[in-house]
Amino acid sequence: MKNGVYRFAVLALVLTLLISAVPAAFAETTVDTIMTVGTTQAFTDEKVPEEDIRTILQAGLAAESAINQQPWFFVALTDQEVMKEISGSGMPFGAPGGAPGSAPGAAPGKMDGKEPPKGDMPPMATGAKASVGDSPLAILVYVNEKSMSPNPSFDCGLAVQNMYLAAASLGYGAKVVSSPTNALNGEKHDEFCEKFGVDPEMKAVAVLLVGKADLSADATSSASVREGLESKTSIIG
Ligand SMILES: Cc1cc2nc3c(=O)[nH]c(=O)nc-3n(C[C@H](O)[C@H](O)[C@H](O)COP(=O)(O)O)c2cc1C
What is the pLDDT of residues 3-20, one digit of tens each? Predict the structure, then answer.
């Protein structure tokens, strides 16, 4: 009897220690993932199982949004033929023509019709640039701009980042691209919406590519350099 009580006490102690260690371990893993994740620029053809697709979509749905408007709709696309249709009529996106990392045919000094900022552009990685059709899964993110949220696209950005990190924690590489929105919101917008079950009032805001990183190619090591705490942050106190 005494032995049983002793065993129970030890088990309870071990369980308490384990449970109290979980939040710390989780926090460390999340920060590690954020600091190391990097954009994946080459994917294998390996299919993403439906269970993982659902988990990634759920992570997107778990994002916070202003006034809880949830102004988004996600389309998990695995049909390569449809992907080709989208990427085929997209515009190249990247650094201005001539700069490192620029897409072939990018207009010199302009990006998506926008003038580059005065001063130096942050450096962009050179090398392969994956787009829709290069990954086994593409998650199209649509925004409801008429939502009451003061900034629905910002809300969608949070959802995309949740899905990006969920994908990374499941062992996938991921990449955000906005260039395919040109095709998705172009002349075939309503046709695409009907095909995908999306309210035609919504607009595509980004696409998240997901799949296993192709380790035989230089899939991630070309990450662009980030500016540091000194130039992009203040700590006041
Ligand atoms: C909202 C958004 C849109 C982006 N659109 C494109 C795109 O259309 N094409 C592309 O090649 N990369 C695109 N990117 C990827 C960025 O170029 C990339 O995240 C950035 O250069 C940092 O590169 P790194 O993650 O490799 O370090 C996009 C990223 C974000 C966040």
Answer: 666 676 666 666 665 555
